[in-house]
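Notes from the pairing session

We agreed to fold both candidates in a single pass and log them together. This is the raw record for the first candidate, unedited. Please don't reformat it; downstream parsing expects exactly this layout.

Candidate A
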Amino acid sequence: MKNDSLDQNPFLKKLMRTFDRGDTLFEQGEMGNTVFLILKGEVNLIAKRDNETSLIGKVGSGEFIGEKALLQEKPFPRFCSATAGEELLVLELGAAQFSQLEKDAPAIFNVLLKKAFKTAVQRLDASNRLCNILKIFEPRKRFLNYVHFIFSSNGRSNLKGRTVLLSPFDISFHIGCTPEDAQDWLSTLCDLHVLVAEDDSQYTVQDENTLLTVDTESLAFPEAA
């Protein structure tokens, strides 16, 4: 369903919100009872643990955040914070609005329901993929697979030119290496012209094929394997 189709529904139009890059949709631990459907743009999901922040995922156009709100009206604590990675257009609604939509516009309700199921399936697939990556014993191979996973986490088929946040702390937190090793390996990928370092731990894919075929021997042996 295109955004202009949603715009034609007066009820949904009132529930649409816009955010500028860097704006916060909600904070970790904050109580909420609404779900967000991303109509345009991308959202960064950020978790805070032990006074350190970690990027745990990205949500793009056509995906949901906070699907629990479709099943219950009682507020629940947000698992993480959500910030706009770029200019956003979202649809925000709670269980009551979703139920009203089922009565007033069943065709749109069915489309949104399918999108919610699709989001759930995609996240399950991503979780299974990440679990398989974490089972890789060799730290450098685990690192390379994790980096590709982050770049491809929103399902894009062509990763060349895509920029994501890859901080050494995020990487060490998720795959069990030291931040120093993560930084060293990221620098090596830049030296190999696989990635281009941008500002604030932002990296851009220069050559996806090379990322998939980098020899682990080209990366320094980890300090703590």
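Candidate B (folded immediately after A)
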Amino acid sequence: MEDSTAGLSTARSWKGFLRTIALVFLVPLVLFGLLAGCQATSSTQATATSAAIDRLSAEELETQYGLRVRLIGVTAGGGMIDFRLKVMDAEKARQLLLDSERRPSLIAAKSGVVLSNPTEEQDELTLVDDGILFALFPNSGGAIQPGDEVIVAFGDLQLEPMPAQ
């Protein structure tokens, strides 16, 4: 009888050993496969979303909205972004700049970090032909460096990337 008990004990330890091997190797493998599948889906969606955005060129901004980007400059030791627009046609610019849903923001093209201007004074904005508008944006974490590509966004309207100075 002792032999049959020893055989049962050996069979149980083999089953336990195989379960342990399965848990140690198969579970992480399955989880890795699921994670890789999720990442592939999300990167496809991010590409589809960015491809769906219709971007305006600098010339189109001037033609349609009477504005020209004069400067996207890293200043204050890299802590601020000096953003300047020249008003070419005040009447056209009103439709874009006086819309509270289209407050300008800057997007670091490389990282996707969005910089917003914290001031709320756009309601008092006076637009005149050949005038220059400027705003200072906090450069959170040094998201934009000189030479980096920056996307100027007015709500859902985005310009083609342009280099920061």
